């Protein structure tokens, strides 16, 4: 009976994670060209910054709250907890004050949702690009 209750919730969590992963991948392409001031406006102040011959690097670390169901599901030899916990590090490379590349380093407990935890970092920026509040060039 518990499995019948937990299975739809687990599928919903997996679906949301897959959607968030797609948002992160969309951001990797659509935010190239964003000005440094606009990036700071939509993503906030980075956790880390560094400079090299390749440009500036702004890094954002995010650990969103775990989502999912933590009800134990009985299986042979114990139980299984269904939850989606993940962390993400997003690094923006900026050259001449504009985003040139975006890299993700993420961990996920769910398959097919590798970069899902990165979505909150880029989601606000994507919304501002869509509304024309900020522009890529």
Automatic annotation (TrEMBL):
Domain of life the protein comes from: Bacteria
Alphabetically ordered keywords of this record: Signal
Extent of the signal sequence: 1-18
Protein name per Swiss-Prot or TrEMBL: Lipoprotein
Taxonomic source organism: Roseomonas nitratireducens
């Amino acid at each position: 009976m518990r499995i019948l209750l937990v299975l739809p919730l687990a599928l919903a969590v997996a679906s949301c994670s897959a959607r968030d992963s797609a948002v992160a991948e969309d951001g990797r392409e659509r935010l190239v060209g964003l000005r440094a001031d606009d990036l700071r406006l939509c993503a906030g102040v980075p956790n880390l910054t560094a400079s090299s011959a390749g440009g500036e690097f702004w890094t954002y670390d995010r650990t969103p709250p775990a989502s999912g169901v933590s009800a134990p599901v009985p299986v042979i030899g114990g139980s299984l907890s269904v939850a989606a916990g993940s962390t993400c590090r997003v690094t923006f490379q900026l050259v001449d004050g504009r985003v040139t590349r975006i890299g993700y380093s993420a961990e996920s407990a769910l398959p097919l949702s590798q970069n899902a935890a990165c979505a909150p970092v880029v989601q606000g920026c994507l919304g501002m690009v869509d509304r024309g509040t900020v522009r890529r060039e």
